């Protein structure tokens, strides 16, 4: 309640604010009469197309209003706040609306695996499994639920635009943001991110796909030049975006910090105009990554539509460039039109956000269910799992925080658990307790905890227990890469000692990317839980005790060693590199070093296949508590090809098998040995068989021909291989295509 003696002073303060910022204040205070007038404007008719509506509004805009649409107004914690900072919603930034015409402010928030910055805004968000974890479901429907939850929680918190889904291909598994992306295969990653975006936007928020493109490492991300051949670019990194944009139709594409083949991504005409806008017919707007804009005239001409989070290049400098004729008005109009169109198309004009309370219980339920679809069972020697709660008498829970929580990924993706504000790059553990979840499953068993800080004490507990559940972790964050794929903090030694004390040890991994496992032959079981989200421990317990049969499969290869990677040594900025701030601000910035992706088409499993390198766990791999058989492969030509086969549950539990189809192209195509071209998640009762029929998109069988700048089918013999992982393909057939 306000104190009455302070009221006159407050009123004076409000009056002063109105005098100082009349137009800004008008942004969110409209009188009823004005609201009625706005409703009567022709562009407020939802029956018209977003293009028509955007065009009408564009015609009404002044030059200043157009410029206001194409830049941000700061982000809390990013430099000195601007006078209009109070209009922000506490997110990553905002774009002014045009209140007199009924165009709302765009309030943006990061939302990789849930809505960011809840703690500092006194709000709450659900943490879903990491994006990479969600890709392990291979399930477009699960991706849809993922996006819908984030869309709902964004709106509940007053946001109408998301920043994320990320879909940078895992070329470099040490990339600190691997957990934010969807793995190493462009067709799988693009399909899943597209479904996430489609369902997120259905909640009436502007969707976004990022970071376009080839932002495949964090080391020197603001000044690195990613060098890659055009064909490889189109068939790998860009194909994921192409598919994601095609399915999800996002309102926005975020261009990345790095340069690609010499030009920074946010002023790269090939990426932004030639490919994205002209070839793919993308109708939304390109938003720069935060501080990723480097120029006015060049960036505008290349196709950047909106600078974030400030107006260094797209504020006064852009206005002056338009007035001086250096940037044609038609170009500024195109930027503004695209932003307006995205606002109409997403529904944020017709259905403005209204703050509400996030559905906490519903979020828990979704987070748990999606994690159950994401956990990959990597090893299960002698069917040690599922645990039999009637038989197990004692369980040791070992590992850092395993009594209290599970790990999450950091940086701008970070979702806050209940409690105080966490700082950038803190290790954040969600209060989902493996100890409690396991104890609840086995009330008759003695369940004891050891943090593992002293391996000898952990081994002593392991020795006297029937079963050991050993929780290990590898933390990742934006802004840094991993130096290796080994578990940090001597955890390999901990696993060795615990497993030596009790071979009935099951390792539960909480990782953002692949890890090496020098101890893998000494433990009985391995479960990859990723960063498991708000209800991770319950999902893990459901899998461990067999209440849920695991179905997920790896969306990336787990190599044996970093020596097997295309670039065993991570490429880092040379001494004397300019540094982030210099590159972001100069206006004359040039990349200072490069990563040459000379492995080209050979990303992930395609590299290990082509180079004949054995791996620890292959792409597409994951075990179940039941078993599956494949038979009856038929391959027919058509538009692309049609592949049909039968999958049978040959075991005694109900389960879901992710059946995968790979194709090898004719030798003259010069491709790696095989590529994923389709899959289906098939639910089967014990003994049940189902017929699967998949039409394979002709593009997925094609190569990108640089000479004609188009996708082409290579005439010749194609091989089609079907099975449960990229290295277990019992069925195969050949087909000639012309
Ligand atoms: C990240 C983006 C993020 C933006 C806003 C940047 O540092 O690269 O992914 O959306 O910040 O927080």
Q: Can you list the ligands bound to this structure?
A: beta-D-glucopyranose
- The count of helical stretches stands at 21
In helices, the fraction of residues equals 25-40%
- Secondary-structure-based class equals alpha/beta
Distance between the termini: 77 Å
Count of strand segments = 27
- The best one-word shape is globular
**Strand order within the widest beta sheet:** 10-17-16-15-11-14
Rg, alpha carbons:
26 Å
Strand content: 15-25%
| Average pLDDT taken over every residue | 95
**Major sheet:** 6 strands, mixed
Descriptive overview:
The protein is of the alpha/beta class and 738 residues long. 28% of the residues lie in helices and 19% in strands. β26 and β27 (731-737) form a beta hairpin. The longest helix is centred in the middle third of the chain and has 18 residues, at 329-346. Mean pLDDT is 95; it is low at 1-27. It binds beta-D-glucopyranose. Beta-D-glucopyranose binds next to loops.
What distinguishing features does this structure have?
single chain; 738 residues; alpha/beta; four-stranded mixed beta sheet; 21 helices; 19% strand; binds beta-D-glucopyranose
How do you describe this structure in short?
The protein is α/β, with parallel strands linked by helices and 738 residues long.
